[in-house]
Design brief:
The structure is a homodimer of 389-residue chains. Chain A is built from 15 helices and 11 strands. Chain A is of the alpha/beta class. Chain A folds into 2 domains: 11-180, Rossmann fold; 185-387, Up-down Bundle (Dehydroquinate synthase-like, alpha domain), CATH 1.20.1090. In chain A, strands 2-9-6-5-3-4 form a 6-stranded parallel sheet, sandwiched between helices. The first copy, chain A, has a two-stranded antiparallel ribbon with strand order 7-8. In chain A, helix 12 (303-314) crosses helix 13 (321-338). The first copy, chain A, starts with a strand and ends with a helix. Chains A and B meet through strand 1, strand 2, helix 8 and helix 9 of A and strand 1, strand 2, helix 8 and helix 9 of B.
Chain lengths: 389, 389
């Protein structure tokens, strides 16, 4: 077990109807002027917008609205939001949405406390030393941003998607009502399942061992979301499955699954290149394509680890670790297929010729490698992308 | 899954040598005058005291010392500490020790911010609305107080041991170096294993279901500490086992194992009567005697739950749930024996005649019942104690 720092201070209000307490919660912290960020108009159609606004108004909270956060939130939106937040002296940012909205809110919160450009933080040129508090009402179980220390932005001018971690990126509170995710469609639900699994597996597949308690917790999350995913393909309004998925989303990425282990998020770095270049690709769908390809590239470095994954999560047992490991990867891929996820880049309409460009993006023009069991340089990464067609 | 509030904000510095950073950590928070509480002289013999004091002095922290916290910390000690804390205007309390020292520090921290007697908070006559910050350097993996919201005090005048939960009882930070527990003897190590298991099982054995993710996390903790306990009986200086035990201690009682479930801590209430009356009984040893007796009394209400425990934690499978459940309880008891724990009250030199007195203490003189699958009234509790002789 490696030394670690664990700090997941987000206060989680979990359960039915919880979002209706927002006014009281915000007032409890003493905030009077807040910025509310959200995505599309869907929260208006669903009635969530009205319920939230009513509760806030009831508690005399002044709300500056910033709707229109896009999936893969854009740095241009955040720059505008920072300007508005400063002008209006908002005291906190409330994100009503999924990971994209929360990440936009987190970066707005950092930007509102500095005069430097927020993109400098995304590229890690600068490190935050302050931020406005952020709270969220979660409407999508996937990114785990509600409890995580990470925030990802996309810069469309540079075709780049970059994330940074900071203690200032932790939400002060998260309101998690699984009922708000009943209307999430099949595709987005499946993308969420993959994303939660990926956050868990990224930490699970690193070199340091043993960390049996952390392993078992990670395996618990994986088994639970696999089961929940299967239920939700049949019945999208199953409360228990939605609740499992939502809580797993938070736990998978709040650092619990990485305690005592290395933290690289290697496949995420490949996926960020992919959906940075092709904005229409949902993060979870990109991960579903890349994870098996990455696993097949590196599993031989630690077959016993991949075999443990196969045995404990997928319940397979073959004559040796290598065969068991490969069978585990196959099961994972088959599960993604069962969840109706794409398994090749071809399904996105992307052809083999983009492998080089993606590998370049991923290595910042061959200037870095991505470490994950092996040092993945430009050629290794290009081959992973190539194997996805 | 029931609605829940999850808030475990303690910052955990986990790993080797971490306690040597104490001065820097305290200074980072801006505290200049602190109270340091500890138990016996053992931290002086081990060299820990000097290492901590040197680090604090190096960072120019003024330290008011309050040594001498006893196991089952006494309200009289805490009253004195509160007086000293107020006189010296200390800004935070640093606990160097195990659960007893941390609980003394937590209650001192609450008491330092009020003029009411601290025992009124233990009896829940009053609720805290403020507290000094508390940090700890953990030297014993057992009570989980380093991340929990609970604090337990003993009132020797009244022969009562009472705990209360509050958000103000959460440590601001916890320094967890497993190496500091190498010198914990066999008996106290075993008591710790039982306590960690009990914190997990108390939440596991409640009526609400399904909560499969929480279940699996609880089972992960149980399996991990059973394995760690066995290793430590052979080699008390096994770093990985000590680390597993320490992290499990924190996770078992920081509320993670109770998410979505009822929280009663019923067996703890019986044990508090026991070690409140017989101060020489270690909490973990009392739990080792009481847990199997309680389980045999109530398992018939939910045999499938106890059977799940038997299957997943103890790997037993019998023809039906009832038999499987009973076999699981037997395995748990056999494990406690393997850990050299007492299995009867007779082993403490206590005879059957005290059952009535203990049941009275537990029910506050027949004025309340303890809920745990069944409403345990005076007679049920008396019979549980009787079955322990």
């Amino acid at each position: 077990m490696l030394d670690f720092l664990y700090h997941a201070p987000t206060k989680v209000y979990f359960g039915k109807e919880k979002h209706k307490e927002i006014g009281n919660i915000v007032k409890g912290y003493g905030y009077r002027t807040i910025m509310m960020q959200y995505g599309k108009e869907s929260i208006k159609k669903s009635g969530l917008y009205d319920e939230v606004m009513n509760s806030l108004r009831e508690h005399e909270i002044t709300v500056i609205e910033m709707g229109g956060v896009e999936p893969n939130p854009k740095v241009s939106f955040v720059r505008e939001a920072i300007k508005v937040a400063k002008e209006n002296k908002v005291e906190m940012i409330l994100a009503v949405g999924g990971g994209s909205v929360i990440d936009a809110s987190k970066t707005t919160a950092v930007g509102a406390k500095t005069d430097y450009d927020i993109w400098d933080f995304s590229t890690r040129k600068r490190t935050p030393s302050d931020a406005l508090p952020v709270g969220c009402i979660l409407t999508l179980s996937a990114a785990g941003s509600e409890m995580s220390s990470s925030a990802v932005l996309t810069n469309t001018e540079l075709n780049m998607k970059r994330g940074f971690n900071s203690e200032f990126n932790r939400c002060q509170f998260a309101i998690c009502n699984p009922e708000l995710t009943y209307t999430v469609n099949r595709y987005q639900t499946a993308c969420g399942i993959v994303d939660i699994m990926a956050h868990t597996m990224e930490r699970y597949f690193t070199v340091c061992e043993p960390t049996d308690l952390t392993d078992q917790i990670a395996e618990s999350i994986l088994k639970s979301v696999v089961a929940a995913g299967r239920v939700l393909m049949e019945n999208p309004c199953d409360y228990e499955a939605r609740a499992t998925m939502m809580w797993a989303s938070s736990l998978s990425h709040n650092d619990l699954t990485g305690c005592g282990r290395e933290n690289t998020l290697a496949v995420h770095q490949l996926e960020h290149a992919l959906s940075g270049e092709f904005d229409f690709i949902a993060h979870g769908a990109g991960l579903a394509v890349l994870f098996p390809a990455w696993a097949r590239t590196v599993f031989h470095v630690n077959p016993s680890r991949f075999a443990q994954f196969a045995r404990r999560v997928w319940d397979v047992e073959q004559e040796d670790d290598e065969t068991t490991a490969l069978m585990g990867i196959e099961r994972m891929e088959a599960f993604f297929k069962e969840m109706e996820m794409p398994l090749t880049l071809r399904e996105f309409g992307i052809d083999e010729s983009s492998a080089e460009r993606l590998a370049e993006l991923c290595t910042f023009g061959k200037q870095r490698t991505v470490k994950s069991y092996i040092e993945m340089d430009f050629d290794v990464i290009k081959n992973i992308f190539k194997s996805c067609y």
